Amino acid sequence: MSYLLRVFNSGSTVMFVAFRADASEQIGSGHLMRCITLADTLKESGAQTRFLCHDLPDSMWQLVKARGHQLMSVKSPETDAAASSHLLSDRHWDWLIVDHYGLDIQWETFLRRRSSKIMVIDDLANRRHDCDMLLDQNYRKSDRGRYANLVPPSCSLRLGPKYALLHRDYARLRASAEPRESVKRLLIYFGGSDLADLTSRSLRAAVSLGRTDLKIDVVSSQISPRSNEVRKIADDHPSITCHQNLPSLAPLIAASDLSIGAMGSTSWERMCLGVPTIGVILADNQKEVAAELQEANLAVCLGTQENVNEEMIAGRLRRVVQSRDFRTWSERCMSLCDGRGTHRIAESLINDAKTASPVLTEQTPEKPAQS
């Protein structure tokens, strides 16, 4: 059992934590995956965990269950607050953790009856929250005042990649990671479905360099519409290794020198292990962070997925592999994230649970307020 475990106000050595997050082909799996990572760490510390999700893909449903977390289905998004409250009504919770762009202060206030404290995971800063802690793990040159009018004055903020929710493997591999001197091994990974077929485009761009000494690892998903094409390209080139259904990306990232991928949450995994990135924006919520990372010379962003073609990728890749200051780039990446964010957040949750808010009474309204 982890040393993080503490004794709470009730005298119990068990903390009860609920999560509200979703995953789908449209929104991706990032929200759910980082919650699973945090839930795993809390569970190892003795916590009881439960996920509330709406219509998860079968693979995600099985993953949550395989990790030993309770999982309940929010049947109707139209009545999300009431449905979620009902699914948590069997007991009182120490923490409710919300990672969902579609939920805001009204949902959170209504769920106060079920939990002593609420933590919100956000990066948009475009709506108000009723929470005791807010985590925004994205990099920004200045976070000053970003959430000033969006959370209660008493809300504790955890801002920046220092708090990125990474699997423990990253902190472990970070201990032996060294800044990269040059590009000898390339990793291509664009997440689950890759509807824009950036994996194939990047793979063809890498092959066009004509460097037989460059080892290429490409990670594709069985649900990707172009997975067969990726495997065909890999079969034709002995320097390419195709990977599927990996339990963790961490060892593959640690073995790489450069990555081509999305400008999403995987950015912190790559930076933790010192792997520079040529990135593509796959969703609107990645635009601001991509711009910040590029301005700080922490990543190269090619633009949005609909505007990036094979020639653009090949041109930038050619310049990067010939760069003489590659080590400096790798060092900048490593300075941003050390891989211990999940530990920091878990410790905060456990310590703060000892100062729980009073349980709300039955006088709390039975229906959420309307917008």
Give keywords:
371 residues, alpha/beta, Rossmann fold, 32% helix, globular, disordered N terminus
Domain module count: 2
Which architecture of the largest domain would the CATH scheme give at its second level? 3-Layer(aba) Sandwich
Structural class estimated from helices and strands: alpha/beta
Name the beta content range: 15-25%
* Strand segment count: 13
Give the overall silhouette.
globular
Rg computed from alpha carbons, rounded to a whole number of angstroms: 21 Å
List low-confidence stretches. Answer: 1-11, 357-366
Helix content: 25-40%
Please provide the ordered H/E string of secondary-structure elements. Answer: EHEHEHEHEEEHEHEHEHEHEHEHHH
Largest sheet: 7 strands, parallel
CATH topology of the largest domain, what is it called? Rossmann fold
Q: In CATH's first tier, which class of the largest domain applies?
A: Alpha Beta
What's the number of helices? 13
- Summarize model confidence as the mean pLDDT: 90
| CA-CA gap between termini | 44 Å
In which order are the strands of the major sheet placed? 3-2-1-4-5-6-7
